[in-house]
Design goal:
Layout lengths: L1 H25 L1 E11 L4 E7 L7 E7 L4 E9 L10 E8 L4 E5 H7 L1 E2 L3 E6 L7
Parallel strand pairs: 1-8
Antiparallel strand pairs: 1-4, 2-3, 2-5, 5-6, 7-8
Length: 129
């Protein structure tokens, strides 16, 4: 009788732990990335994304001087402090045709996490030689 009780107790504990584990890993969060144009020129923005198994895709929009735009993305429970995982690079082109490419490594250095991730495009960034 004691073996049945111990076995039943083990099953209940194991089931409870499995449920807690599944709830924890199935939770996801919605995050955002805000891009702000701190220059005096209009900027064409292109974000290049790669999310497997889906084909690469782009996010295109125009940023007027002083304006910002935002996109949302979903992360898993353990990825809360990660910049949008699918973002590979952004390409910025101003009215003068100056084209700047910022790869993911650079974006991770300049992005600030304060609520949504914030990336500020400064005049110095848009200087082509």
């Amino acid at each position: 009788m004691a073996k049945i009780i111990l076995r039943g107790s083990f099953v209940v504990r194991s089931t409870f732990l499995a449920i807690i584990f599944l709830i924890t890993i199935s939770c996801s969060s919605i995050h955002g990335v805000a891009i702000t144009n701190n220059t005096t020129e209009t900027i064409q923005f292109r974000g290049q994304f790669e999310n497997k198994p889906h084909p690469p895709h782009n996010l295109d929009f125009t940023l007027q001087p002083g304006a910002n735009n935002l996109w949302m993305y979903e992360t898993g429970f353990f990825e809360k402090k990660v910049l949008d995982e699918g973002l590979k690079r952004i390409i910025l082109t101003n009215d003068k045709g100056c084209k700047i490419i910022l790869e993911r490594e650079t974006l991770e250095k300049i992005a600030v996490k304060n609520g949504p991730w914030k990336i500020n495009i400064e005049q110095e960034m848009m200087t082509c030689n």
